Amino acid sequence: MTTTLIIATVLLAMLALLGLMVARGLWRRLTGQHLKRDAFARHRAMIEPHLQTRYPPGEGPFPVVVLFHGCGGVRQIMDDYAKAATQAGVAAVIVDSHTPRGIDYEAALAQVCTGRILWGRERAGDVHAALAVIGDDSRLDSSRIVLAGWSHGGWTLMDAFTLQSSGQSPDGLDTVPQPAFQGVQGIFLVYPYVSGPALARRRTVVPPAPIEAFLVADDGMASEHEAAEVFAKMKEAGGSVTWSTLGGVTHGFDEPDHHPTSKLSYDEEATLQTRGAFVEFLNRRLDPKPV
Q: Can you list the domains of the chain with their CATH numbers?
């Protein structure tokens, strides 16, 4: 055997081994085996200090909407929707999933938005943590809850529902409080990501409450076609799901402070339309008292 052939054989063997390692890593991540499972109480303790709760005027208990940000983390958009909620008599809980994990804005854009870290099925544990905290807050009515998610936040919610329907816990958790999603009266989604590794693409479930969603035509970050397919299957399975598609805007159209290098753009008209629909949804599903 010549030296060249030996080298080629070794290189091919190394490439094959590398391919097997990559495939094994991907398989472990797709099946939730890449993280050691921990107690729910520890996860709640990690997330709870990073919940921002905004209350309407008065004593309560108030109905509540839980806001799950997109892949970039907590931005002004969350404050804008929280303000709209409290003005309608609904408390708002903003869930910061990045800070407790040591992820800043630049790292989020580079790693979360590209799918390198923190998939929806892992972040799904934050949904259960937020609901547990709400249940212990006497100023909040845990029987009247709406869950709202933007982009990655929508992926998170959809994965949380899918895992629960399959009897599985979110990645990294050994268990979650049961019954899960008790008190959830509605789900509001804006350009949710349900492509690629999103569980809702592979498993059709009936959502725990009615869904209203806003999609973006020709969305290059979260396919509206794949989202519509998922919603249609949910509806066929007996779920209450409605959605509409906005044209002439980009993904993140309601976020006013995009990164300077971003190709996404803010659209005030579409933002006001969607935020108005958000408040109307809260009124229908939660029946808050006028402020």
A: 38-286 (3.40.50.1820)
